[in-house]
Amino acid sequence: MISHVAQDGEMQARGSFERVPLRVLCLGNDLMADDSLGHVVAEQLCQVLPAEVELVDSPAAGFHLLDYVLGVRRLIVIDTIITGGAPPGTIRVFDDCRMKTMETISPHYVGLFETLALARSLSLEVAEEVEILAVEAADCSTVGGAMHPAVRAAIPSLIRMVRQRAAMEADRPLKQIARSTA
User: Fold this and answer.
1) Residue range 13-65, pLDDT digits in tens
2) Which residues in the chain come in under a pLDDT of 70?
3) Which helix (H) or strand (E) holds 85?
4) Is 6 left (phi over 0), alpha (psi -120 to 50) or beta?
5) Are β-strands 20-27 and 129-136 bridged in parallel, bridged antiparallel, or unpaired?
6) CATH classification (class only), 20-171
C-alpha cells in the first residue's frame, strides 16, 4: 500500500485492484477558517501513520467523494460539523448509519452520507465500515479566517484517536480469500 496525501481531488493509483484495509479521509477547505481542520490534521497524520494506511486530504464534496469511499474496507473521515448543540472543539464520533440522508435527491444537496447511500444502492464496493470523527466548528465560511482556538485544541485528540484506530486495524487478522480451483 502507498501512504499518501492527495490534495488535488485525484486518487493515486495503487497498481492493483486489492481493497485497501484502512483509508483516513480528511475533509475541508484550508482557506475557510475552521473548515481547514481536515487539512491541518492530514498534515500531521502523514508524519505518524503506518505506511499501510492510506491518507487522503481533500476539499471535495458531493459526488466527488465517491472515489474516496470505494475500494476500502474501513474508512475514517475527519471533518467539521456545525450543529449548535455543543461548544466549538467538541469531538463527536459516529458511523454513517446513524446519520439521515436528505429525503430529496438533488445534486445541490449531496454530501458524504448521500454519496455513501448512492454507492450502496448501486452495489459498488463501498467501505464496509465508516466512522466519522467530527469536530464542532464555530465558523466554516470565513475565507482566510483563523481556526477557532477550541477547534485547533481538538487536533491532538483527533491525531491520537486515528493512531489508536490504525493500530487496532493493524492487529486485525487478515481474511483468507477462498480461490476456486475449477
Assistant:
1) 444 446 788 999 999 999 999 999 999 999 999 999 998 899 999 998 888 88
2) 1-18, 96-110, 172-182
3) none
4) beta
5) unpaired
6) alpha beta
